[in-house]
Amino acid sequence: MSEINKANKLPRHPMPEQDPKVRARNFDEVPFGYSEETAMAEAGRCLRCKKPKCVEGCPVNVKIPEFVGLIADGDFLAAAHKLKETNALPAVCGRVCPQESQCESRCVLGKKGEPVAIGRLERFAADYERAQAKMELPAIAPSTGRKVVVIGAGPAGLTVAGDLIKLGHQVTIYEALHKSGGVLVYGIPEFRLPKAIVQAEVDYLKALGVEIVESYVVGQIETVDELLERYDACFIGTGAGLPVFMGIEGENLNGVYSANEYLTRSNLMKAYRFPEYDTPIVKGKRVATFGGGNVAMDASRTALRLGAEKSYIVYRRSEAEMPARNEEIHHAKEEGVELVLLASPLRLLGNEKGWLTGVECIRMELGEPDDSGRRRPVPIEGSEFVLEIDTAVVAIGNGPNPLVPSTTPDLKTNRWGNIDASLETGATSMTGVFAGGDIVTGAATVIEAMGAGKKAAAAIHRYLEEN
Amino acid sequence: MNRIVAKEEFSRNPGVKMMQIEAPGIARKAKGGQFVVFRLDETGERVPLTVADTDPEKGLVTIIFQEVGKSTMALGALEVGDCLADFIGPLGRPTHMDDYGTVLCVAGGIGIAPTHNIAKALKAHGNRIITVMGARTKELLFWEDKMRALSDEIYVCTDDGSYGIHGLVTKVEQELLEKNRESGEIGLVIGIGPPIMMKFVCKTSEPFGVKTLVSLPTIMVDATGMCGACRVTVGGETKFVCVDGPEFDGHQVDFDEMMKRQAIYLEQEKVARELYEKEAGCCGECGGDRQ
Is the ipTM, as predicted for this complex, more than 0.90? Predict the structure, then answer.
């Protein structure tokens, strides 16, 4: 029997989760994580390939066989340290990375069976280290005396800061919101990524010596040009923080939210704990979320937890075309989110007081493939129908936040407002100014932003050595 | 950081208070028309307030607020020496500076505060300033001296006639614009106050064809363009008050929609206020500063 078949004899270990009915009404994290025994058994499935394909699938090239091997040996702390050599935020990545399309999609075990649960193991090792309260700090190179400013404390910016501080540079991050983490704190809900974990990762960077200044809106209180008078290099990682609306009638009715607002109220401002927390949120009974990505899943699942009796996702294509991770769609359905597929909203209906009462939709069918390769949805004439709702969440995407580009005249942007930057180095049209993450690529994933951050950090280091 | 260095009560009921906050960066950068966001503590909400005045040399930012909800009541209960968890700014776009000739500033109630900072900037730019300031009653008027100092002409009114001209600010606005018909020296009207007042300032100026700016006090969360809570319809287009504003051409603003959106959280605001009053052990009559 081949090694692959032998390893696959032992099936991939599932991760225990909260019961869907229970968890749909609380904000606690959905999965419980592996026990030590399960983690060791799952890690034991890894074949420790000589040329590990999984590493190639990782945007930050985590040393996967090494850390998995250390878990198999029961040296969990060493596994966590191995992870942190290349990934400053393993507890986050273990939870929100789309492993099925990255590292795990390359695992040779996946060819005949199921791949090693790399994401779950990453999460296990990072959680183990955090629980031990034995945060070991890596060696830091002697001070270079050079100063780097990072704008935005999201996944890209935190990664840049983590890498550059280890190389001996002085790093300051300016964050516009009052809490660091970017989309990790305002966007991704507590039940998918507990905020204490983000805080621990941010605290780790602070322990490394990164200075983080929150509630500091670059572009307003200080421009990039002004910052460059005080810093030797600059990284812009300001993200995709500009909500896109559908442009249909009734979008300004009360009860209609952008996904950004809905999630920011609930996650960052903790509106789900109102009135203990001051920020309110409309707790709708019948909520529709428009869109089919991970953000739509987060919003529709948040609606259930805020007490919705009905939480719909209205998506214009079929389930197979949904951009969300399968795991997220699965979790949402399990919790009771209803998918209204092949339907597109035409207009939002309201009462005389300006409150949302329903949405008129039209049925769609799939036609020929479009530029994205997905079959284009085509409206079916005369198939209009009305869904009665009191809350709507628009989750059809985000544009680049214009605050920094619009106040930095020499910074070139493309016609969508994204910063023109090299995908390999993050270099922009301005000397010493680098950019990465969603502000460059448009809305993507946490790990892709971190990958861009890693490349930019390396390029900034080279730039500082040469200049 | 964000320490309160001065506090003054302008009115007891409803509570209208002035505070000076230590915020050197903002004091240096903030221009007329821009606003700040404050957050009281870890459980606090993010509340926008237009800057009333700045002192760049001393690093101070002046805010004036009316205690209408839990957050403003709790802010009003703080004393000199206390600190705010967050004081963020400057936010929004500054008032566009131009040679308008004469600017007619129509300020109502709490709107006197932002009007002051805007008029100050316009005056410094070389414009002539006519101010019409008013409030429901005498107690709610403040900074008449400061407005008088920077205005070339000033009219003070109260709705109930308890001070100055008896009547609404729009009555005086109407008269001034009538008088202006021949001279045409008024190149800009600025109307700032409660939404209903701004709506009527615009309605009054519209037949005269004088450009009218309003500063919109919409609900916000991040106030950096991220969430769209503050969206309004201006000239048929959706705009974000936090990054596209807060000032807009008042003749293009859909005030009715804006006022409906202002009411989204009335119920929750009541819950929060009542809870606060109960916890503070007061009746709510004093404005929340007598524990």
Answer: yes
